[in-house]
Amino acid sequence: MLKRISFKVEGRVQGVFFRDTTVRNAQTNGLTGWVRNESDGSVAGEAQGPPPKLDAFVEYLHQGPRAARVEKVDTKELSVRDDEQGFKQK
């Protein structure tokens, strides 16, 4: 069974390699999806995979890389996509 979420991370999350480490974390957990910087200074994306791996990924989002200062993480459940491969930066 797979699950898909959207996420938005707010705080000091741009210019601190948040996207790069998010991609690596997602790939390590075998997730598919994407991540990008938003114009409001947040980082947003979607991730899909087995619920335990997705839970570990969301835990990572609450910390991010060492230089990040995460203030808020919002997630929302989405419909699963069957045709997606890999996890990428947009």
From TrEMBL:
Residues 71-90 are annotated as: Disordered. GO terms for molecular function: acylphosphatase activity. The active site is at R19, N37. Keywords: Hydrolase. The keyword Hydrolase applies. Pfam families: Acylphosphatase. Residues 4-90 form the Acylphosphatase-like domain. InterPro entries: Acylphosphatase (IPR020456), Acylphosphatase-like_dom (IPR001792), Acylphosphatase-like_dom_sf (IPR036046), Acylphosphatase_CS (IPR017968). It catalyses: an acyl phosphate + H2O = a carboxylate + phosphate + H(+). Gene3D superfamilies: 3.30.70.100. Its EC number is 3.6.1.7. Belongs to the acylphosphatase family. PANTHER family: ACYLPHOSPHATASE. This is Acylphosphatase. It comes from Trichodelitschia bisporula. The lineage of its organism: Eukaryota, Fungi, Dikarya, Ascomycota, Pezizomycotina.
